[in-house]
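Kindly draft a sequence, keeping tokens residue-aligned:
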Amino acid sequence: MSGPQPQVLVVEDEPAQREVLAYNLEAEGFAVRKAEDGEEALLLIEEENPDVIVLDWMLPNVSGIEICRRMKQRPETRSIPIIMLSARSEEVDKVRGLETGADDYVVKPYSVVELMARVRTQMRRVRPATVGQILEFEDITLDAETHRVSRGSEQIKLGPTEFRLLATLMEKPGRVWSRDLLLDRVWGKDIYVDTRTVDVHVGRLRKALMQNGRSDPLRTVRGAGYALG
């Protein structure tokens, strides 16, 4: 996997189900955070900015539907995929969940194997490099499984940090990443690194991508950060 593990937040008030989900997600290679009620979930979403959320509909304090609604109202959390879990199997409930903003809806009791597949599907959307996808942008190709990068027909040699940096930028071309966000995504949330380190590695990545007189695909946005394209 590329960079720090992709993170899944499990929001489930039943301890046994919460632990089964966490165990299986960790076995899949995901970092897992857990919340047992709606308030704790909202706090963790704010602090951790997880990649995917597995969210139970019926929760103490704040319901799953309400969490979904609040997340979709905020630009910072609007694009985080939500898989809603619910014992409600009526079509009207499923439609309500999806219309409120859930990206997927799974009826209890569910197959853990199927749910893991659904998590991988959502992760493929938001962090494709972490699930071995091949990423392409213009003439740049990044193969996350073999750790190879090419530009046109030429192989480009990158260090591990530059590779993770490029993978992050290629996952969302055009998006401006702040230095702090890049630090979290490339180095990890628990590691203290000076933000100027980002500039050094972006410089190295730029140099590698511009070999043999090729154009610079990276964009520096003054006061905001970096983007690809």
Q: What stands out?
A: The two ends are 24 Å apart (CA to CA). The longest strand covers residues 7-11.
